[in-house]
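job 3f2a | input accepted
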Amino acid sequence: MHGHGHSHEAPPLDPAQRRRVRAILAAVTIPLLFATLIGLIWLWPRGESPIGTLPIRADGAELATAEITSIQGDEIRGLLTSGMGEGTEVPIQVPVEILMSGLGVGDSIQVIFTEDAMGTGSPYVFYDFERGPPIALLALAYLAVVALVARWRGLAAVLGLFASLAVTAVFILPAIMAGAPQLPVVIVGSSAMMFLAVYLAHGVSIRTTTALLGTYAGLLITAVLGYLAIGSANLTGAQSDMGLVISTVFPEISLRDLLLCGLIIAGLGALNDVTITQASAVWELHAVNPTLPRRRLWSGGMRIGRDHIASTVYTLAFAYVGTALPMLLVASLIDRSFLEFLTASEIAEEIVRTLVSSIGLILAIPITTALAALLVPSPDDAHAPRAAASPASPPPAVAPDDAHAPPAAASPASPPPAVEPPERYRSVWDAIETEEEWER
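job 3f2a | predicted structure (440 res):
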């Protein structure tokens, strides 16, 4: 995703304008919030959760930690740091692929002790690496960088991220495992995630609510287009190893619906990014020049949006290629034409996921820009009521002997004074004017 700095100081609106905009947004957002809450209550998993019900080791086996002390060929020894025999150096069975992938002396690993294997001389078998400390350090570094660069706004965004992940952990996953309809669960969960992420990260304001509605529009487009694309391409999600495992453990789960659910969730972060950017762009342009008509606000916002589209076209594609790189390596080994390679089930799933998410992302940009431009007060709304009600310009004093003089004709040669943008917006305004001249 892209990083953007968004100013959230709303342009000055008079009370009537602010009430009008808030009423419009509340009329749409509050029903969405209530629908999300009702959906959470209706679909909330009840009863015992299946999460954590599969044991990671057989009966009689124990999990311990060890530190590698020596590697001589395929003979690996380690010092037990927990569990039975703590402080003892023992031989450890390690798979060849793990040994060849970078296992070194001093590495902390997890081992499984099986008492029945005592007769073999190697009852300790490699299970996994001990990754807690390095991941904790990386997380602390991440928080420090966010706090240093984005300060409280960045930390609020991290809080929104954690809250969104909590929705996935306590609602989406248990509900799907409990047999609830997958698509409604993911749509309701995604809605809750959007409310939490947008409002915790960016605060409750007119522009963030506009961005939220744009995100909903992009989510709806992604869901509908994904449903049509998965059905027309006959993608099942059942031809991967993970699909086979899921169909065995949860036979009631539709793998095709699960594929669509993953597609919807995958695009949420990028959708939130572009909609916040577009809503902020329109309001900032309005702050630069409050006399701009809505058409000019929309066109100015879309100039920024087109640059965003140009970058997001490859953002999602690169992200999916990176995550699917091992699968691409294996799929490339098969002797087949390039077209057959692209239409193979495992490759076609990634292509459809990328194209559908990108289309939803791109269409969310003009939709959000249009919503923001419609909600921004027009020049007549912004100035006419104020001019009529403003007491700051009293009529000129008239001398008694001029009481019957005809009024002076209004001069048509006096144009309204040019609106100069505030200093902090001057570079933005100059860039837009320069681009308009270049396009003409």
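job 3f2a | The longest helix spans residues 132-177.
job 3f2a | closed
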